[in-house]
Amino acid sequence: MFRIIKKPELSPGRAVLSQILAILVSLCAAAIIVLILGYNPIEFYANLVKGALGSAYRVRATFNKAIPLVILSLGTLIAFKMKFWNIGAEGQMCMGAFGAAYFALNFSHLPAYVLLPLMALAGLVCGGIWALIPALLKVKFGTSETLVTLMLNYVALRWITYLQYGPWREVGGMPKIATFEANAVLPSVFGIHIGWIIALVLTVFVYILMTRTKFGYEISVLGESQATARYAGINVNKTIVIAILLSGALCGLAGMVQSSAVEKTLTEQFTGGLGFTAVITTYLARLSAPAIIVTSFLFAILLAGGSFLETSMRIPISMIYAMQAVIIFFVLGSEFFLNYKIVPRAGKGGAK
Amino acid sequence: MAKRLLAIILAAVMVFALAACTAPTGEPVDGGAESGLKPIAKEDVKVGFVYIGDINDGGYTQAHDKGRLALEAAGFECLYKENIPESADCEVAVRELVDAGCNGIFTTSVGHMDYTETVAKEYPEIYFNHATGYKTLPNMCNYMGRVIEARYLAGIVAGMKTEANKIGYVAAMQIPECIRGINAFTLGVQSVNPEATVEVIWTNTWYDPAVEKQAAIELLDKGCDVIEQHQDSPAPQLAAQEKGKFAIGYNTPTPDAAPKAYLTAPLFHWDKFYVDCVNRVVDGTWEPASYWEGLASGWVGLDELSDLCAEGTAEKVEAAKQGIIDGSLVLFSGEIKDQDGNVKYTDGMPNEDIYNMNWFIEGVIGTIDG
Description:
The structure holds two protein chains of two kinds. Chain A is mainly α. Chain A has two domains: 1-39 and 317-352, no CATH class; 70-290, no CATH class. Chain A contains 13 helices and four strands. In chain A, the strands form two sheets. In chain A, strands 1-4 form a two-stranded antiparallel sheet. In chain A, strand 2 (188-189) and strand 3 form a beta hairpin. By secondary structure, chain B is of the alpha/beta class. Chain B folds into two domains: 40-145 and 269-297, Response regulator (Rossmann fold, 3-Layer(aba) Sandwich), CATH 3.40.50; 147-265 and 303-365, Rossmann fold (3-Layer(aba) Sandwich). Helix content of chain B is 39%, strand content 16%. Chain B is built from eleven helices and 15 strands. A six-stranded parallel sheet of chain B has the order 2-1-3-4-5-11, sandwiched between helices. Chain B has a five-stranded parallel sheet with strand order 9-8-6-7-15, with helices on both faces. In chain B, helix 2 (60-73) links the parallel strand 1 and strand 2. The radius of gyration of chain B is 21 Å and the shape is globular. Classes of the chains: A mainly alpha, B alpha/beta. The interface between A and B is medium-sized, with 33 and 35 residues.
């Protein structure tokens, strides 16, 4: 009947143009559904933007989502480039935050310029170790990294729950972990926590790593074909392990940034599912580090603005979730149609 | 020396002042500071709710949302935000409600407390109310249904029903809210059946049907024939039904979930509190108190008893209910022993100690970590 064939590769300019087109199409499609549901689509989008960027506080709230998304996406990118499907950013974020919180809670007598780097290091190490488990399992036993990274998310989330309700519970019986002392909280620069600078620096770092270094090239080759990589003399297992260690470390750092700068403590719900969202933003950015800043920020607007619609237009949150899903669905869907085309299959002995 | 003495006295005064703020009692306690809030005309009141879950969750949030519906029926304008986690997102949600013009805010989960407090400090003219916590400010009260009274009544139902004299209790978190509920329930059981024991399994989750059910099955396999729960889903009731045993619900009536097992359920009537509270805002009698009220105020109750309850249960429950309401029956009075038989109190427990209980009374089987 039909078959799917890949379109020839688009030039970078055309690709960006077509992606912008895809986003516009998705917004129009969502607008039609908003209209059918009985709301004014112009008002809908106006409120969405207003909710995300309408005041200094809201801009800050949007950045609070965008910053961890950028860092998580960068971590995810390194793994995806290698076709190692690390969907464990959520869990690595948790473990990174756990490491950072350990130092924040137990070494709060240290000055900020010692404590904060220590927390960041702990975040990197813990996130990296958490990602190392699926990487080693894959290298040694050929397990599916998709499954293992996914499952380890829940282990990590429950670990935080255990800490919050168990050993790390604040004195006084309330099931919460103590708020960090001021010296364990990342400072702000221009009204937004310093995470935005970290995210920008990391974006440059990952961009250079992936496009300008031998290691980045090895990752790309490995992603295309393990056999090719082996013929080219690349140590496949070593490259996988180091790349994933780096991938997890970045996600762990995102956890440190979020717990220190935004939450100022650790709670079982601090991730807000951002580790999973990062999979989408990374994919939409077509594994390009600079593009991740764009997709993460757009996504943060969608999240922060969507929440605002609940009070400004009285749209039930379930409907807002559905609209967000429609937008993502259409963006991803049009991605597909931009890269592939469906052609009628020539029938067996049928008319040409 | 005199300076030191003064410091000690000051410290003591502060401790007592703090205790007065945090001690939940049946009576409103003055927050210590004049609220300075102005009454708001009924048509100008705009109420905002922050919910931890979905308004149709069939449990905790739905019970709160009944309060929102009652306020709307009474002519108050309301907004709400669903699925707000106990993270910095909560602060964003509270601010959105303030931005939208709400002048009365209710946050409904224990972990919303600090975020509510942060915003409340910035908006001294707005009324903040937080459920199930303990902090107060001149413009922030906290409130909790004294559901231990309803649990005591549920204990009577279970004590009458059990034939094995073994009752299972699926409980969420090792925190005073759950522990005092288990203890109050056990008192109810013992009041009609001194032989019976109450065995506890912790799930470490408020809502996870699979885990809740597994815990109930474990208790049923140990020979328990009535299951009580401090969980947000009806899964333990389903487990009891599958094993041909009986169960007691929680939060919202669920007689249809497991009709062959359902006996009754301790319920919150948050609607009663919400309407009372907002009316106090209108007539200027709102206070930054710690409210912990029960059967007498109608904030909690026991669901209608199903036909599966043992004969004579209704009379016993009714008598206890009247006793609690008129004050002739006081929970945790007289001598109280812990689960190892040590006497902890010789003549009743103060309210504050009940609220903060972190040990089991005699007759409970189970452990509390840390």
